[in-house]
């Protein structure tokens, strides 16, 4: 599916640009975004290094394990294929906690740390595991209590009651996270997404056939 | 009150972690400095590993955004979205949330300016914005960091959840306000 979406975005973008007679804008955007991508990655280097260092201490001190164990009953159900006491569990919890508290700067490095740990359990390099997809499904559905950017933008736009959306946002984000978990469990069982089928290489073409 | 509590949590959580973890490590007889440096080594390579994945996604999204194809897509699906109570004005923003966080934020501000942050559309946009992350960006960065390119059901689940959250935002806004 990533193949198709990626191709559609690119091809439709350029074609619409040509039809509108403004293909230069599209070209400029592509080139600018290539630079933006590198800038984002470069911007991560410092903060990533800092948190990987801190997390290494936390791991060696047994803190990550402790956190993982504390929430084990819930986490075990979500992430069946992570063995008990594996550092991935603790790293996932740290990332989710950072998201909930709105600590954007720490959330991404902690999330990448969790991915690195999850990848250690991956038997098929290059193919996502169930646990990795579940972790990202929860992440993309956003788990936050403090939507500080949104409130800031509402204040800037002259809202009479900028914080009135916090309650509804918590409700909406709960709905989206719960549906992410449910959909993730359901989709993982579908033939075209099952790990053994993807590993055996029928994923790219199977997408077309299975539709 | 709640807002103040939450704000001070965001303010103090990071300093507490930055002090607490090394202190805890020290008491557990971890060689804190050496362990930090050893663990931190991976920071550079992890960040750099993301680049090809991020360039691929951002360039495709950039081409799509700049071309104005979003308006075309919105026109195609607006008959369906109108039926479920999502105003047509909010749809380009609703779709943008999956592609680009910055783009969606800009469109939300435009909606605020045009309709007001306290209008139905302004509130709906705020709630929709807060209920998901940018699916394509998160997948590129997170999977990129471990060189996973076969993402299985991650993308369809992410996009479906984006759609569900938009519908949820529309329903919640209509009920609450």
What's the overall geometry of chain B?
globular
Distance between the termini of chain A: 11 Å
- Helix fraction of chain A by DSSP (H/I, runs of at least 4): over 70%
Number of domains of chain B: 2
Furnish the topology, listing elements before pairings.
The complex is a heterodimer of chains A (211) and B (177).
Chain A (H helix, E strand, L loop, with lengths): L1 H18 L3 H38 L2 H8 L1 H7 L8 H14 L3 H16 L10 H11 L7 H9 L9 H23 L6 H5 L3 H8 L1
Helix pairs in contact in A: 1-2, 2-6, 3-5, 5-6, 7-9
Chain B lengths: L1 H26 L4 H9 L1 H8 L1 H17 L1 H15 L7 H9 L1 H15 L4 H11 L4 H10 L9 H23 L1
Describe this structure in words.
The complex is a heterodimer of chains A (211) and B (177). Chain A has one domain (55-210). Chain A contains eleven helices and no strands. Chain A has helices at residues 2-19, 23-60, 63-70, 72-78, 87-100, 104-119, 130-140, 148-156, 166-188, 195-199, 203-210. Chain A is globular and about 60 Å long. Mean pLDDT of chain A is 88; it is low at 203-211. By secondary structure, chain B is mainly alpha-helical. Chain B has two domains: 1-40, no CATH class; 45-176, no CATH class. In chain B, 81% of the residues lie in helices and 0% in strands. Chain B contains ten helices and no strands. Chains A and B meet through helix 1, helix 2, helix 6, helix 7 and helix 8 of A and helix 1, helix 2, helix 3, helix 4 and helix 7 of B.
